[in-house]
Amino acid sequence: MLRWLPVDVSTFGREIDSLFYLIYYITGATFILVTVLMILFLVIYRQKDGRRATYSHGNTTLEIIWTIIPAAILVVLSFMSVSTWAKVKRFAPESDFEIQVTAKQFNWEVVYPGADRKFGTSDDVQFDNDIHVPVNKVVRVHLGSKDVIHSFFLPNLRLRQDAVPGRNILVWFEATKPGKYEIACSQLCGFGHSGMIGWLYVDTPEEYAKWAAEKLSAKPQ
Ligand SMILES: [Cu+2]
Known about the structure:
The chain is of the alpha+beta class and 221 residues long. The protein is built from 3 helices and 10 strands, in the order ααββββββββββα. The N and C termini lie far apart (54 Å).
């Protein structure tokens, strides 16, 4: 199978990718069919001396068929994707690992709640554009925005969610492989949009513990 998506390190990535490829092959096949027929008909029915144009009402049977088939495909696709959608967007698993990500023109403010596990207290620790998480851990992200609509996009985690001013939106992911992965903004949010890049560091538990001990606990007030 053709593979050109970024490396998938998400627990729900496989489901997203198989839906993506299914839709990709259906639309790809439709595109080829329509294009080939169009070129074929252009050649077959081109202007010729002595050939008269015919008047056509259309063909009701054909029209019913080519309306019902795509409609049925759409209905089947929605039923197939609804459980994945619910898993990714509706029912975030419980976890003791929560962070706050706030988008603004033009960076990502990342807040760790500190030892008391509460946001908005004096032991919160803030970073710009960098997120550190341990591997194989459910990470709950409280997503917000300070100015315009941004979009929190982790291609390798197969996660994308708009950050909307005035709303606190919960998303989650669980990374399956340590590494450094891109965080991008995928809503055109202003002049510096393309530079709105951050990095997600997925650490081994030991690496993460070391980083947390250094950066999260011993922070002077
Ligand atoms: Cu943005």
